[in-house]
Amino acid sequence: MSKYGYIDKSGSFVIPPRFDTPGYYTEGLAAVEIDGKCGFIDKRGDFVIPLQFEYVDDFSEGFSVVSIDGKYGYIDRAGTVVIPPTFKYADYFSDGLAHVLTETTEGYINADGEWVLIPSYLCCFPFSEGLAIVWLEGEEFNEGYIDITGAEVIPTHFADTSAFSEGYAYVKTKDGEHVFIDKTGQVVLELAFRVSSYPYFSEGLIGVRIDQRYGYADKTGSLIIEPRFDKAQRFSEGLAAVTIDGKCGYIDKSGEWVIKPRFSEAGFFLRD
Question: Nearest-CA neighbor of 64 among 82, 54, 52, 76?
Fold first, then answer.
C-alpha cells in the first residue's frame, strides 16, 4: 500500500511518508489515517489528537467532523467531543453553520449543536461564500441556492450545480449549456472548453480539458496554460499539482515546472 507524507514548496519532504491517508493542513493540524484509525498531527508530524476515530475531516471554524460507532459528531482542536455523534451524516462548518442529517431531518446546526435552519428541500449542501446548493424533488433542473437565512437567492432551475468559489459557480442550464453564474444567478462566463473534475476557480484560474489533455483558463475564458497534462488540480499558493506520464509534480502560473514530476500522487498547498 502507498504511504503518504508532506513536502514543502521546494519539493523536499518535511514529514516522511508513513500515513495510509493524508488530509490537508487546516488550522494548524492535518487529519491522517493509519491502519483504519484516524487522528491529527501538527506541522512537525507529531500526533496532537491520537489515532482513535473511524473517520475525521479537516478542521474548519474550530471543529472537525468525527465518526464514532458509525455516527457523526464534532470535536474541537483539543480532541474533545463538543457535539455528540448522533448524526447519520455531518459536514464541515462554514459561515457558522454545518450541514447534518439524521434519520428524519436534514438541515443546519450552529456551533452549539442546535438546529437553526431546516430548509424544505429534498437535499442541501454546505455553505460556500454565503450560499448553499439545494435540490427540489422532481424534475431534472431542480437545483438552486439559498442564503444562511434559508431564503432562496437563486431559483431552483439548474442542474449539475457546484459550490461558489471566487464569486462564480459552475452550473448546467435548461438549454443544456455548462456555464458560470454569479451570486445573482446571472451567466457571467461561457467557456469554450470542458472543465476538469474540479470545476472551481482558484487564484483566478480553472483547469480545462481539450482532447483529453488538461490546461488552465482565466476568468475571461482565455487559455492561459496550454493543455498538455493528464490531470490538473487547482492552484493554491501559486502552484498546481499536475500529472504527466503517470507522475505528479507542480507548475506555476506560467506553466513552468517548479517541482518536477516524481510523485505517485500529489495534493495542493494550503497557507495555514
Answer: 76
CA distances from 21 to 54, 63, 133 (A): 12, 20, 28
CA distances from 3 to 6, 13, 29, 190, 227 (A): 11, 13, 19, 40, 30
Rg of the Cα atoms in the chain: 20
CA dihedral sign, ordered 53, 54, 58, 59: negative
Q: C-alpha grid cell for residue 90?
A: 455531518
Q: Other CB atoms closer than 10 Å to residue 174's CB: what's the count?
A: 11
* Closest by CA position to 21, among listed 69, 56, 59: 56
pLDDT of residue 10: 94
Please classify residue 218 by burial: count the beta carbons closer than 10 Å to its beta carbon, then call 0-12 exposed, 13-18 middle and 19+ buried.
Answer: middle
DSSP class of residue 215 equals E
pLDDT digits (tens, 9 = 90+) for 53-86: 999 999 999 999 999 999 999 999 999 999 999 9
DSSP 3-state percent helix, strand, coil across the chain (nearest 5): 0, 55, 45
* Distance of alpha carbon 184 from alpha carbon 178, whole angstroms: 17
User: Quick one: DSSP state of residue 61?
Assistant: T
In this prediction the pTM is: 0.90
- The 10s digit of each residue's pLDDT in 179-192 is 999 999 999 999 98
